[in-house]
């Protein structure tokens, strides 16, 4: 089994199922914190999915998209923590 077969048969389906399960948590999250963490995890898992897809189909331009998504997720998390701090004052 090569790396490409491993990505095709194992990594992409596992990431797809995990995105689906995290999305359920995003919808059912009882608190806003749970939903923000679920959204951050969806983006992180999406970065992994995009990276695996990029390796599988030999398209390195998609790695730039993954990098930008990572930056957006980081800024979203920082903004949320700032919001929580301001709300608790």
From TrEMBL:
| Compartments, record wording | Cell membrane
Q: Which Pfam families match?
A: MrpF_PhaF (PF04066)
Keyword Cell membrane annotated = yes
Recorded GO terms, molecular function? sodium:proton antiporter activity
Instruction: List residues traversing the bilayer.
Output: 6-24, 36-56, 62-84
UniProt keyword list: Antiport, Cell membrane, Ion transport, Membrane, Transmembrane, Transmembrane helix, Transport
Q: Name a single GO cellular component.
A: plasma membrane
InterPro entries xref list: MrpF/PhaF-like (IPR007208)
Give the bilayer topology: Multi-pass membrane protein
Family the UniProt entry places it in: Belongs to the CPA3 antiporters (TC 2.A.63) subunit F family.
Q: What is this protein called?
A: Cation:proton antiporter
To which species is this protein native? Antarcticibacterium flavum
